[in-house]
Input
Amino acid sequence: MDYQDLANLVFPNAKDISFYEEKYKPRNLKEGAIVTRFAPSPTGFVHLGSLYQVVIAKKLAKQTEGVMFLRIEDTDQKREVENGVIGIINSLKDFDLSADEGMIDEENEIGEYGPYKQSLRKDIYQAYAKYLISQGKAYPCFCKTEELDEMRQKQENAKIRPGYYGVWAKCRNLTVEEAAEKIKKGESYIIRLKSPGNEERKIKHHDLIKGNVDFPENDQDVVLIKGDGLPTYHFAHAVDDHLMRTTHVIRGDEWLSSIPLHLQLFQVLGFKTPKYAHISPIMKEDNGGKRKLSKRKDPEASVSFYTEQGIPKEAVVEYLLNIANSNFESWRKANPNASLDDFELKIEKMSVSGALFDIVKILDIAKTVISKYSAEQIYNEALEWAKVYDKHLEELLQNKNYAMQVFGIERGNAKPRKDIAKWSDVYQNISYMYDSEFSNQKVNYEYQKITDKEEITKIVNTYMNEYYDAKDDKQTWFNKIKDMAEKLGYAREVKEWKKSPETWPKGHVGDISTVLRVALTGRSNTPDLYEIMQVLGKETMQKRYETAIQAL
Ligand code: GLU
Output
């Protein structure tokens, strides 16, 4: 009996690997094209750090006319949740980061290199495991859990490196006859790698992000195929990334220490190794220290947080590019209106240590992103968001014509307003423009310099009776406010007043506008007052000013 006979006994139905090598041909892409992937477990949860990986993977693939595919890694069936796959697919869609190949819903997929769900690739893994057994490079292991526990205990007591290797790898030395007999007797088993490594020797490896690293060789006879017939992550990684013709493995740096094993697997399988880029996690400041952004502790670790808050997807993607390459910021300054597609991401420029999460920065980017939207775009996106998350806002937005006027205030000009960072800000941002809301709100009129009841009444009445005219253009309107200031004993220009405040003890034109603004909107900080007046119209203004006077 030889290794081939043992292999046949273990996997009688597995195909020869030449079948798969032939089926999944090298991709016909242009020189330098990057083929990479996003390979999540279907836990339904997408971490911001995973989205970060996707942004990088997708961008590199796009830049080089390559491919980014989605592979569902569901070999650990304990971790699976219902609808886990669709949750991931939808999250990618939400950020315009859908994969070029892979699963498109719970059942269907696109692409020639599938199945893209590992649990459907059992035959493939078994074919490669069979091949290794036939070469004497893998073997069935019959050790029971209790035996392994006992072994670990012994190693621990003797302070020896733990694991299944060297003299500890009991089943490695079974003859093929012994192994065959156990199988025939019906003993259960798993398949292990017969590691050719030696702990004393070092391997050198170049990681695209981490640079040159060296590690001791792997000498562990790791599990390739588990008791349920499914592969371990390590084995599946080697087989899949080979057959799917991945050129670059871009993944979290928690896998960096597995490099010696992975390189060894590629070597024993006779595969060309891909390039590796291990991404540092996104960090968060915590009590003066730093820790990883945590799924358990930080709501903002989940990508659904951004969708729920209504932070535009472009802002999140832009933020992630920002932390990916430190030159992004200066590129953005030089090209404020360029599409993100025009930025060339360089993997070698990614930082070795993890970037610090910064929500202020995200919101700041979001404000800029939204400031460039047209009123119509804002209307559409806010409405889409409101339909899911804020029914009241949805109702408010039913009158599109009016909403467009509100969103149009100080927009479409050279310096558009930057006061909305997320769709969940919109209600608070515009509610005072709606009488239905304003009349129900408890308004706290915070007048600033001018607080005297009579003076305020006089300003408001004079304005409405003598100066207001809906047909005025902005310049005329402003000149009239100045005229009114002068008439009421205030400085026409703030500049003049500053030069000699004693000449105008009552104040200046700005103080007058503040009164008109606060009494009209209940806020001291609003966009352009002229435009607000244009949108509200005479009747509403009259009503609001009366209410304000009553409240004095
Ligand atoms: N399923 C692995 C994970 O979620 C994938 C790592 C990889 O990209 O290879 O961590």
